[in-house]
């Protein structure tokens, strides 16, 4: 028989274990994501392509590791260097960039893996097609095709990362364009009251002044928005049609 205290303790442990995924998800949104996405629920299409990029990165990691082993057996230093470079890109840019939705890291990983490694892939394909020795064609073509598999994974992962970075940049533009809070009902600048409001503080999106006054605010407030105290990275001039 359990005492009332032990029963309550077991219930608390069970409830805490049931809430563990929610706590982990909340921690992911608040602490781990890029600051632009913290505290917000991600749109479905961003989560979808983030998950696809994670799968592509896993595929790329396995393929590059296998390629490194194959090139080591064949004692081909260039192939070893290319696969080591790919693994370093995954560690320092791809993995962290996709998990935290860091647009710059995702773009760097996507550009390099879809361009540099694709050149190596095309070179390998051309080498397969133009083998001159007929006796070695069958075996060498098969071997070279196997060695091309890591670069196919690099190309797939690079394209996925590039597409995710494009989605993130487009989402950022839409957020600034559609979700700009209007701080006053008047269309005149809240500072000088003589010019039209035409400038948005980026990334917070506050819009209440003209460009000249916004520039003065950016300089006098130590590059912080006077309304929310977020750092001002840039000023965006908006023209109303």
Secondary structure topology:
Layout: H1 4-18, H2 20-32, H3 44-74, H4 77-100, H5 103-129, H6 134-178, E1 199-202, H7 211-220, E2 234-237
Antiparallel strand pairs: 1-2
Helix pairs in contact: 3-4, 3-6, 4-5, 5-6
Describe this structure in words.
Pfam families: zf-C3HC4_3. GO terms for molecular function: ubiquitin protein ligase activity; zinc ion binding. This protein is mainly α and about 240 residues long. The chain has two domains: about 40-180, no CATH class; about 180-240, Zinc/RING finger domain, C3HC4 (zinc finger) (Herpes Virus-1, 2-Layer Sandwich). The protein has helices spanning about 5-20, 20-30, 45-75, 75-100, 105-130, 135-180, 210-220; strands at about 200, 235. Strands 1-2 form a two-stranded antiparallel ribbon. The chain starts with a helix and ends with a strand.
